Amino acid sequence: MLVNSLCVENVRCIKKANIFLGEGVNLFLGVNGSGKSSLLESVHILATGKSFRTSKIDGVKNFDSDNFTICSTIKRNGFEKVVGYRNEKSNVDIRIDAVNVNKLSDLVLNFSLITFHSKSIFIIEGEPQYRRRYIDWWLFHSNSQFYPEWLRYQKLLKQRNAALRQNDNFLHVWDEALAESGEIINLLRKSALQILMEEVVSIIKDNYSTQLSAFSWQYNSGWPKDETLLSALKRNQQRDILYGFTSVGVHRGDLRFTFNGKDAKETLSRGQQKTLSLIMFISLGSIHKKLLNETPIFMIDDLASELDDEYRYSLLEQLIDFGGQILLTAIDKKDLRFPMSTPVNSFMLQKGEVHVL
Question: Could you report the per-residue pLDDT of 12-54, keeping only the tens digit for each?
Fold first, then answer.
C-alpha cells in the first residue's frame, strides 16, 4: 500500500501543498505549529474520513476558509486510484476515481493505514473504547463478517435502549436479537485477540524483554464469563429500565494489560506505556502482512516524544524491516537515528509551506 502523491488545500495552517512521497521513509521536519502533523492528519482523513486530532472535522479547516480539500494517488495490490475528500460548510464530498462515494466504509476499504499519534497511548491508559477500536480495526480489514455484524449490533443497541426508556412490552425481542449479534462479535474479537496478543508477546520477547517483562493480557467480553449474554441482559433488565441504557454487552468489552501481575497503566512509566502502545500497533502491521500478504502504511506523529534514543532506534528498525511506506514527523532530523543505508525522503515545513530537502 502506497500514497504516491498528496495534495492538501486549507488544512489548518497549510493553504496549499502538493508533494510526491517515496516508497520507504518519508520524514516531515519543522517546529511546532509549522504544519507537519497536519500533513499526517490529512492522510488520516483521506483514509478514514476522520481526524486524529479533533472530533469535529470542521475544526480542520484553515481559519480564513470555509472548505478544505485533500486528494491523493494511491497504489494498492498493483492498482492505482485517485482518492479525494472535500469538506465545504459541513457537506462532505468523497470521490474515488471521480466516482462519488456515499458510505464511509467504501472509502476506508481502499486504505491499509496504521496511525500512531498523541492519543494512541490511550490504548493503555484510556477508556475501554480505545482498546475496542484496536481489535475492531483488525477485524474490519481481515474478516468480512465483522463490519455488517457490528452495524447490526449498533442498530439493535439503539432500539433496545429506546425500548428500555419506553418500558416496551416487547423488550424480550430486542434482548434475543442483541444477544445473538453480541455473541457473534464476541467470538470474532476473542479469535482476533489471540492472534494479535501472540504477536505482541513475541515482539516483547524478541526486542523488549528487559524493559517489558512478564506481560499478560485478559479480555472482558462485557458481561460475566460464566453466563450467556442473553442471560446477562435478562438479569440486568430492571436496572437497565431504571437508567435507560443497556449495561452489558460487547459495547462494554475491555482489554486489560498486566506486568508481573500488576495493571500496566499503574506500574509502567509514561515512556514504557508509549513503547507498549507502539508495539501493539506494530503487531497490527505485522499480522496484517503475515496473514493478508500486504504491508500497511505506518504513520507516526512525533516519535521522539517521551522515548529515549535506544527505544526509538529499535522501533524504527522494526518498522523499516517491514519494507513498507512510513510517514514520520520530528522537530529535528537529529531526533531520529535510522539504520545505516536507509534512504529517507525529507521535507521541511515552515509556516504551512512544504519544501523538499
Answer: 999 999 999 999 999 999 999 999 999 999 999 999 999 999 9
Distance spanning both ends of the chain, measured CA to CA? 24
CATH number, position 93: 3.40.50.300
220 and 305 in a common domain:
no
3-state SS assignment for residue 105: helix
3-state DSSP assignment of residue 339: coil
Residues 244 and 336 occupy one common structural domain: no
In the chain, count H helices and then E strands. 11, 15
pLDDT digits (tens, 9 = 90+) for 68-81: 999 999 999 899 99
pLDDT of residue 308: 84
C-alpha to C-alpha distance for 272 and 211, rounded to whole angstroms: 8
Q: Are residues 183 and 268 in the same domain?
A: yes
Mean pLDDT estimate for the chain: 94
Predicted structure pTM score = 0.94
Q: Please state the domain count of the chain.
A: 2
- As a whole number of angstroms, the distance between CA 175 and CA 169 comes to 12
Q: Which residues contact 80 (CB under 8 A, 6 or more apart)?
A: 4, 73, 74
- Residue 43 Cα distances to 72, 134, 156, 199, angstroms: 8, 19, 33, 27
